[in-house]
Each structure stands twice: as C-alpha cells, then as structure tokens.
Amino acid sequence: MEEKRYIICIDDEFFILWNLKEQLKKVFGNDFTIETAESAESAKEIIGEINEAGEDIPVVICDQVMPGQKGDEFLIELQSTNPNTKKIMLTGQAPAQAVGNALNHGCLYRYLAKPWDANDLELTIKQAIDSFYTDKSLEQKNKELEKSLFFNPETGFPNFESLIRVLSKPDKTFQNVTIVLIKIVSYPNIIKNFGIEIYRKIVSKFLRMLSTHLKDEAKVYHLYEDELAILSENLETDLIANVEAFRLLIKSDDILLDEVSFHLQCYFSSAIGREDAYYKAKLALFKAESTNSVEFVPYNEDLSTDHHLQNFQLSQKITRAINEKNIVPFFQGIRDNKTKTITKFECLARIRDKNSFLVPAVFLDLAKSTGSIRMIGLQMIDESMNYFKDRTFEFSINLTEAELEYKSFSKWVAARLAHYKMAANRITFEILEDISFSENKNSVNTIRELKSIGCQIAIDDFGVQYSNLSRLLEIDPDYIKIDGQFIRELPHNQTAALLVKGIVDLAHGIGAKVVAEFVSSQEIQSTIESLGIEFSQGYLFMEPSQNL
After folding, report:
1. What is the DSSP string of 58-109?
2. Where is the EAL domain (predicted)?
3. Span 5-148: which CATH code?
4. Cα(252)–Cα(5) distance, rounded to whole angstroms?
5. What predicted TM-score, i.e. pTM, was given to this entire model?
6. Rounded to an integer, what distance in angstroms lies between the CA atom of residue 213 and that of residue 291?
7. pLDDT tens digits, 228-270
8. Which CATH entry fits the domain spanning 312-536: 3.40.50.740, 1.10.630.10, 3.20.20.450, 1.10.760.10?
9. Is the peptide bond before 360 cis (omega within 30 degrees of 0)?
C-alpha cells in the first residue's frame, strides 16, 4: 500500500482556507492529501494522527493571527514533533517579532504575505517538498551509514566502534563503568569444521541468550567475530556475578542449532574505568588466554607493569594516525660522490603525534605485529610520490614483507605513478636485509614486477641478516647499501675496510652501484671515496627533515 503524503493548511478564515486548498489540489492533484484546520489545536490533532500512522507531512502552511495559540508559537511547538517538516507562514498581519521568533525557534522555511502570488506560492511549496525529501533521503542514508559503522552486519549488535564511542563520551553521573570481555576460543574450530555461516548463527544465538539473561542491567556488544563485550554502570562485582551465572549456564548446556549441539569455550575478563576500560579489560583477556584460565580474570595494575597497556595504546595511536593520514615522510639526502651534490633522497616514515613525531624505532615492531605496517607503507609511498611529483630528484622508500607479499602491489605502484605522471625510474625501492624470501615466495615475483615497470631496486643494510649470493641472483639489484656498522668502523678497523672493499667489488661486478650509510665524519667519507663508492648518506651531509 502506497504511503500517504500530507500538506497541512491552517487559517481561521474559511474562505482563505478553501481557496488555498483548491489551489493546492490543482497543482498537486492526488499526489498529496490536503488537510485544513481553523486553529492550532485542530491542526495538532490532525498532525498527531498522521504521525501515529507514520506518514509524511512535508509542508505545513500556517497563519499567524488565529484564535488561541498564535502561528509562531504553534510552529515552534511543531518543531519538537516534526523537525523535518517545512514550515511556511502565510499571513498579512504578522509582526516582525513573530516572524523572527518562528525563524529562530521554529525553523521557519519561508514567509509569504497575503494576498499571495499564486505562482510564488506554488514554487515555494514545490521547493519545500523537494527540500523535505532531500533531507529525508540524506537522513536515511546517514542512518544506514551509522548502522554499517556502528553495528555488526551479521548479528545486528553494536560493534567495537560503537563501544569506543560510548566509552569516550563524558558522563558526569558515572565516572567509571564496568566492562566484561568474552573471547570465544571455539571460533577457529567451528569455522574449520562447519564454516562461517554456521558460526555466525551460533554466535547470534549466544548474543541473544546473553542479552536475555542480563535484561536491562547491561548492554551487549559484538566487537569482532570472536570477541564480545558487556558494558554496565553496575559495580564490577555485581556484573561479574551476573555473567558468571550465565557462564555456568552455557558450560552445562550446549547451544543447540538445528539439532546439533555446540559447546562454546570462552575466556572472560573485566575492568572498570571510562576511556581506558576496554584496554584494561583487553590486557586481562590477554592474561586469561596466556594462562588458559577457566575463571574470570579482572584487570589489576600488575598487568600493565610490562608496558602491555602502553603498547596497546600506542597501537591504537598508530591506527588513528593511519586513518587520519598522519603518516609523514621525512627526507635524508644521498650525496653523489662524483658531483659532490645531493641528487637523491631516502623517504623515512614518521608518525605525527601532536607537536612531535614518532620514529620507526618506537612504532615499527608494533606495526608489524598488528599488520598495520602495510597501510603505513602504502601511505608513505603515496605521500612521497605526491611530494616529489613536481621536483626533479630521485627518491627511495623502504619496503617490508607486508608490501612484498601483496600480490597486486606492483600494479598499485604503477597506478600511483600514472596518477602522479611520474617516471618509474625515479623511485627506488629498498629491500630490507631482514626479509626472508623463503617464507613468502611471492616477494621475489613482486620485486621482479617492480623492475619490469621501470622501478629501481636496492638491497638495504647489506652485510647482515640474509646477505648471500643467491639473494643477489634473485633480486638483481640496482644499488647495494652497505650496513652502517661496517661504515662506522672504516677508518680504524682493517677487517671492516676489507669487507667493505669486497662488497664494493662484488656490487660493481654485477653492475650495481653502492651507497654507504651512516656517514658521520669527513674521515669516513674520505675512505669511502677512496674505495670508489658512488653515494654517501648520513648526518655528515643531512639529518632527516620534513622538508628539503
């Protein structure tokens, strides 16, 4: 059945009201139902019935001077019940104060004076209707967007983003809330044996059972596939006791799904706090997992003594930096020892943190362990290309296993080069020596694909970790960057000098150029030049800087 749409006309003069209705019927025909009222009280009854039926009132046209409640007062009251309805004041006697009052507090859409111009009235109402449905469509899209952002699409329960939004809201009444985290240990086995759809049906039933058990005492969240949360303003001991009763229930009675019983093994943790409540409970959950605890593990201060909490919060900071595009390239010059000028730059990742920057030594290991290192790498490449697109210098960027394992990485690079209208040979990708190609065979293919589109390849930190002849054969590098521990020892250590000379001869033998890293003194630089090393990089020439 098609939904009815209404235009409401309110005026205490019968002839004006009849004339207005007839004009609107000619314009809109059967598209809208035209309702009339001779007072604000009658109009409120009509509007109440329409609201109760859940139907649209795009436009209300109201006179100012009426018996009982005046037009501006009525429109202000209507704003509280029908904020999206477009309100038009049609009157010949409205004082400026009344119009201003309706504008400021009733969101008056338009004021038209009596006698009205028929064309002007028609155009105004059509525009008002268009505006109403544009707003309605936008509101619906916002609701859908909010649902996708803040609710699990499979179970319909609020997700992690929803939980964090609640915890971050200031609440003067409750400084602390209690949170319980539940980790479903059975998750991988159920997925393996029965598939994701069966698991989602099980976890949906589990969530409904939990919500029914808790009633109105707490709110249940479906954070991730295998992680749930319970949030309550009750005392921690009271919430734990309530959840403990549920835990014992599911321990004794399996979850039945289509005549098949499933036993869910879970870890439980709890914490109190506000913005930090989830992170504290997460630390306690880590403890429950590491000790395979069958009991509740409440958070205590001892859990954060090994910097787990700081690491977790730093990981959140890294995630926010990625989302807010706060991955910033710093640049360090690479000197051409023949021309004695800086001709290239290495792009080094930094994370903007308020008024300072975090260096890789602080965030790199955590980024690798959480998997966010790939997004850091992709942002670094894009930001660096953007920076150098209108500059003539060549530049290099480090690659990690995360990028090399990405099968479409070379295609992505080619697309970004085309976007910035940049020649591929201007960019050198530095392959870190701690990358093991044996663990992921796609890495070598990715390097070869990058070379095929014209990018140059360098082996970074050569001389340590996985340095071997087979690696040179696999990569066929354009540059070899000698690790800093050899360069620093050059003037005083004969063994270091012999090793560096051997690396230089080997590099030149396969057609690769050499870059010496960590050049910090003129004495070191003189030795480098005497060995025929083409490029030097270090604090002697330039410290990493945000700008050239």
Report:
1. EEEEE-SS-SSS-HHHHHHHHHHH-TTSEEEEEESS--HHHHHHHHHHH-EE
2. 311-548
3. 3.40.50.2300
4. 55
5. 0.49
6. 28
7. 999 998 888 888 899 888 888 777 677 888 888 888 888 999 9
8. 3.20.20.450
9. no
